[in-house]
Amino acid sequence: MAVAALAVLAIVGGARAAPPEDNILPADQYTTDKGRTLGAKYATALRELNAGIYNCMPWLDVQRQGIGFFRPKHMTPPKDDRYLSLRIYVDQDPSAPFSALKFEERASAMFSRYVGEMLRRMTQTASILSDPAVDGFTVIVDWLKQTGGTGRPVRETIAVFTERPAAADYLAARAKIADLAARAVVFGYDGETPLGRFRLQAWEDGFVKSFQVANYQPDAGVTCRR
What number of other Cβ atoms are within 10 A of residue 5's Cβ? Predict the structure, then answer.
């Protein structure tokens, strides 16, 4: 399924300042020893994740304290499972064709385009994927909803929770992106209104590997992998 209606905003200019440090939850703000230990152990990996997205994917904004080892709130009974989490905002035009799709179709497009690629970036430090203290991964994707130009801007969101074995199977090519979607727990939101849990379709989307922002160059010494 191709979704040509996903139009990313043009970003003009050269390299930017350093990525905001407050994109990462500080280790001393975790509420349990497990969280603090993971935050400190992988502090360098989290900084590299933050910098890699900032320098090489300038149409994405990592949200403040959007990177860290958070507990999924939907799990019952609650326990101290820690998922490496990343929350991004996709800076794109809310095109009419894309907005005409059902929410599940928009969510599937965003899942296909970003979730697999973010998992790859989140596990560049290989030990994260094999660390038994890391219970899984969360990728939260926000994008602007077309509202007809009235009222304040509203974001749509998917929150994708993937257990570590499912992520490992996908990243090792033992499972396809459709399998990853089937094994993940996905919740949707319209602004702050929960839409419930969704089962999404997913397909390989090569956009991130091929897209280049016009007239943008990262800082000297920064290598952006494809």
Answer: 17
CA distance 90 to 109: 12
Residue 91 sits at φ, ψ, to 5 deg, of -85, 95
Helix ranges, 75-198 (H): 96-99, 103-110, 116-122, 127-130, 164-171, 177-183
Residue 178 corresponds to which tokens in the numbers above? 């459709």
Helix 43-56, helix 33-41: angle, nearest 10: 60
Show the tokens assigned to 124. Answer: 């560049």
Overall pTM > 0.85: yes
Burial class, 21, CB count within 10 angstroms (exposed 0-12 / middle 13-18 / buried 19+): exposed
pLDDT in tens, 87-145: 999 998 778 889 899 999 999 999 999 999 999 999 999 999 999 999 999 999 999 98
Please say whether the beta carbons of 82 and 38 come within 8 A. yes
Residues 83, 159: contact at Cβ < 8 Å?
no
- Dist. CA 102–CA 22, nearest whole Å: 34
157 contacts 141 by C-beta, under 8 angstroms: yes
Q: Is the dihedral of CA 171, 222, 160, 44 positive or negative?
A: positive
Cα separation of 97 and 80, whole Å? 42
What residue type is assigned to position 197 of the chain? R
